[in-house]
Amino acid sequence: MKLTPAQTLPEILHIEPDVFSDDRGYFLETYQARKYEKHGISEMFVQDNSSFSKKDVLRGLHYQIGRPQGKLVYVVRGEIFDVAVDIRKGSPTFGRWVSYILSSENNHQIFIPDGFAHGFCVLSDIAHVMYKCTDFFDPASARGIIWNDTALQIEWPVEHPILSDKDKTYQSYLQKNFRHINH
Fold it and tell me: Which residue among 4, 79, 90, 153 is least enclosed by CB atoms within 10 Å?
């Protein structure tokens, strides 16, 4: 297993699990507590989520207050553009974001600790995304940032994403409250 901290947000960890391939296909461990703890991910995961979406669906940018969730994200089928944004007030990297292409072809994972907003956009015809969470979903704590927040300037690979009604209502949290963001 190879683990690489993001250059601009070292708390975000890019994970390349060991994949054992032969003419029958492949095998990999998507999670094994001892191995992940050895690499510094000691959080306990309490909930697994599965998301199935079609091309150009954009989910996010989501986070929880009060009960923040860390996430271990990977793709079972398809390909996504995955984004994490630092929303920790007072953080020297507040407002910075990183993105990765996660797919069923590369089998890569992203660990996003609590204190970060998360979202993804589907690049393939369909995508089945799995993610483990360090806390339970709490509807009262659920919040979001509009996907095209001009303060963030995320370079999404889609101009007209398909959004949920809820994701359409989110505001520009960062621009309204924190105008000093630099990338």
Answer: 90
Active site residues: 62, 131
The token duo for 82 is 């995955």
CA atoms within 13 A on the CB side of 38: 8
Residue spans of the chain under pLDDT 50 = 179-183
Which has the closest alpha carbon to 164: 84, 78, 57, 85?
A: 57
Asked if residue 182 belongs to a domain, the reply is no
pTM of the model: 0.92
The answer to whether 85 and 9 are in contact (CB under 8 A) is no
Domain total of the chain: 1
Cβ–Cβ under 8 Å, residues 116 and 143? no
CA angle, 127 then 131 then 134, to 5° = 165
**140 assigned to some structural domain:** yes
